[in-house]
Amino acid sequence: MFPEPGDIFPAWKSSYIKKVTFPSGQDYLVGSGIYNMKMDEFFIEDMVDQAAALIEDKGRAAFEVLRDKKGPFYFMDTYIFVSSPDGTELVNPALPSLEGRNLIDMKDLDGNPVVKNEIDLAMNKGSGWLEMSWFKPGTNTPAPKMTFVKKAKANGETFIVGSGYYPEENK
């Protein structure tokens, strides 16, 4: 996080930097950045795909990386969560108190069984999107939330890996 020009408070900034070598042999770093980048479906799917690949490679050892709020799987209000097929929350860096609890009966604000629907989608189709009604972080305001989930397997275990975002924040 860095303050925007002319501001004193830090804000999320996404940056891209590339090393360039000139014909003279001199190396330069060229970069650009944007403050408060908007979430989109591609970003979420890519993050979930990377997390699922990490789990498939490292198994439960990947959970430490997924929990790290300063790591690559936590950005603004977006983070990776991991559940077991029975509904037990295994990773939730935003709400660590949920880890180890069975959330299979948890419902969204419209009464839909969120965790059950996430598990059913991932187990039956491999991956996909769900819409739910949820409280925006830090508020009591209900809002539509889009969640992408994917099934991952490692060491004989199956995991449901997911992340979500609030589309209205992109307007």
Notes on the protein architecture:
With 171 residues, the protein is an alpha+beta fold. The chain has two domains: 2-34, no CATH class; 38-170, 2-Layer Sandwich (Beta-Lactamase), CATH 3.30.450.20. Helices cover 20% and strands 37% of the residues. The chain contains three helices and eleven strands; from the N terminus they run ββββααββββαβββ. The chain has helices at 41-58, 63-67, 114-125; strands spanning 2-3, 10-11, 13-21, 27-35, 74-75, 78-79, 81-83, 89-91, 127-135, 142-154, 157-165. A five-stranded antiparallel beta sheet has the order 8-7-11-10-9, with helices on both faces. A two-stranded antiparallel sheet has the order 1-2. A hairpin with a 6-residue loop joins β1 (2-3) and β2. It is globular, with a radius of gyration of 18 Å. The two termini are 22 Å apart. 23% of the residues are buried. The model has no long low-confidence stretch (mean pLDDT 90). This is Sodium:calcium antiporter. It comes from Salinimicrobium catena.
